[in-house]
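Example S7 (structure tokens).
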């Protein structure tokens, strides 16, 4: 799966986030600090939560990145190793979008309420759907936004546009 920027106009929340899942808290802090030093804006400071440890930044191009770990203890020095990339797409109607993706060959791994994660057992990339309000809250931004999502997602399911306007190639 590849994600790249688009030149189409947009404003506000773009309706997606990318999360880097790492092995320990010091790696989270190291990656967030590096992102801020390179021009990213902190949206949620790095902190402990009931799920683990993480923070959220907005890159200079407007993309929202979360860096997180479920680990609470250090297992060694901070690294730059990323264990998983999770792409979450905001879906206005999660049930309809879930059905759409299943019809395009993706299998559901987890599904509850307004969250769906697709089964991708051999890939370090995960894809999920989340309601716009919940995804924006998780990212620390307002859910309002218009225009292009400014991403094109590559995969082997063919070219299509999902019900929420996310383009695949």
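Recovered sequence:
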């Amino acid at each position: 799966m590849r994600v790249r920027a688009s030149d189409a106009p947009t404003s506000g929340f773009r309706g997606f986030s990318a999360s880097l899942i790492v092995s320990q808290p010091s790696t989270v802090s190291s990656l967030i600090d590096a992102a801020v030093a390179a021009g990213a804006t902190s949206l949620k400071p790095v902190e402990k939560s009931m799920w683990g440890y993480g923070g959220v930044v907005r890159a200079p191009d407007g993309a929202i990145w979360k860096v997180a770990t479920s680990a609470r203890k250090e297992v060694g020095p901070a690294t730059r190793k990323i264990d998983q990339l999770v792409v979450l797409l905001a879906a206005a109607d999660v049930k309809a979008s879930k059905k759409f993706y299943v019809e395009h060959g993706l299998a559901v791994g987890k599904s509850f309420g307004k969250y769906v994660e697709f089964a991708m057992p051999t890939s370090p990339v995960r894809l999920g759907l989340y309601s716009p309000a919940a995804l924006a809250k998780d990212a620390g931004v307002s859910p309002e936004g218009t225009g292009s999502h400014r991403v094109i997602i590559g995969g082997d399911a063919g070219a299509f546009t999902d019900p929420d306007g996310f383009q695949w190639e």
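Notes on this example. The longest strand covers residues 41-49.
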